[in-house]
Specification:
The protein is built from 8 helices and 5 strands. The longest helix is centred in the first third of the chain and has 16 residues. The chain is of the alpha+beta class.
Length: 179
């Protein structure tokens, strides 16, 4: 295969790729983060407004809010192989927070809260074995403590920016919404 420096198609040679505008870069970054966390536009805007009201760096606060979602914490604990799978597990009542069933994926977990399997899910041997295998395969985040024998987890603290995905440039999102 030959790598050509022009786009495919009949008019590929006549069109030049333009440099992306600042707005385009900012929009792409926002869309990327929305896709990563599996949320819609209005929800994302609400998260940004909450982060903007918080003290400190707005971009870091935004990422902390997104990371502390219930479905994302389940993913970070290692119970699910993807955020979509974690969202489904939460929606199907497989987990409790402080001994109370919660089936809302966007629930904001607070540091110190303990996440356990529901009694019904704990009785399902196939599900328990699947969770144990999944936890062995994954490495939980440093701000989460997981007990793989009891299938419980606890959020120790809020995540720090250095512990989160480095491929996200949250400053571009802040610039986009600050217009």
């Amino acid at each position: 295969m030959v790598k050509r420096n022009y786009i495919p198609g009949l008019h590929g040679l006549s069109r030049r790729r333009r440099k992306m505008s600042d707005y385009n870069l900012q929009l792409r970054e926002k869309q990327k983060v929305k896709r990563i966390y599996g949320i819609l536009e209005k929800q994302f805007r609400n998260y940004f407004e909450k982060a903007d009201r918080r003290e400190g760096v707005t971009g870091e606060a935004l990422l902390q809010l997104l990371e502390m979602r219930f479905d994302n914490v389940i993913y970070r604990m290692g119970f699910a192989s993807s955020r979509k799978q974690a969202r489904q597990l939460v929606s199907h009542d497989h987990f409790c927070i402080n001994e109370k069933k919660v089936n809302i994926p966007s629930y904001q977990i607070k540091p110190g809260e303990i996440i356990t399997l529901t009694k019904e899910s704990g009785k399902n041997d196939g599900l328990v074995e699947k969770f144990k295998d999944q936890i062995k395969k994954s490495q939980p985040a440093s701000w989460i403590k997981v007990d793989s024998s009891k299938l419980t987890g606890q959020v120790i603290s809020l995540p720090v920016r250095e512990e989160l995905d480095s491929e996200i440039n949250e400053q571009l999102i802040v610039e986009l919404y600050s217009k």
